[in-house]
Queue: 2 jobs
Job 1
Amino acid sequence: MRRALVVVDGQESTKELVREAGELAAGVEAELLLLHVTSEQEFADREEALANIAGFDATYGIEQAKEGATQFAREVGRESLSDGVDFEAIGRIGNEVNEILTAAEDRDCDHVFVQGRQRSPTGKALFGDRAQKVALDFEGPVTILTA
């Protein structure tokens, strides 16, 4: 492992995923990237909510949303990783699976860490599963943590 991408989301167990990935990356002196993806729907909802605040003149756009996603990943890293474990935080906007795979490719990552969701086989068949899609489409090892 040279460069690992860890997908950070709002679930509390994400911190455990980040800690584990950080320990592994530090052990083999690999670079560690933490990625948070804000969906297009979340972006639109936040944009609309801010537009509806009376007297709120600031604009909320893609760059602010990316910075917010980056800041979220940075905060999770600071809370979860031991001192001395370096990482880079990345924020993206869009389809989560596509953005994970694109970020991994753009940054030449050779390992992805992602949290799985507990779903029934029927639920996976009907709605898909982020971890499953990443594992199937990423051309390298994928570590999946289930809560």
Note: The radius of gyration is 16 Å.
Job 2
Amino acid sequence: MKRTKIYEGKILGLSVYDGKLEGRKVRREVIEHRGAAAMLAFDEDEKVILVKQNRFPHGDVLEIPAGTLEKREEPIKCAFRELEEETGYTAKKMTLLITYYPSIGYNAEIIHCFLASGLKKTSNLKLDEDEILSVVKMDLKKVISMIKTGKIQDSKTICAVLTYAAKKKLY
């Protein structure tokens, strides 16, 4: 397929691909993204560590900590880095929960969701200049209830929490 880059921004690009699939001419518009790591983490009181973050144009959103992979960064390295930056916690271990494509039809983004364990509060938040967020802690059952009632709509949070709950046979 022939690729024509239409736009290249800080975190995403847009390309148009022209070619043939099964003998037919096709054109595909694809959002290019390096991917992200997201972390389901529990504090010392077994509360889920969430972040309340402004996600323009949707407003404030409750979600698990996450971040975009740097160029050639391994997802697990991103997970350790982003957890500390967004929450001030470090983790001893990251275990992969699920990897998925949030919008498979037109977006190359892949999200790697990890379970962070062995947490220790080590620092204050280290946010990017344009990040506006605060840490919120909540019981897992309440998080699941908020997913069920549509109060939490973030895909990485839904995928990580429900995968964890299914593996633990909680849901």
Note: The chain has a mean pLDDT of 94.
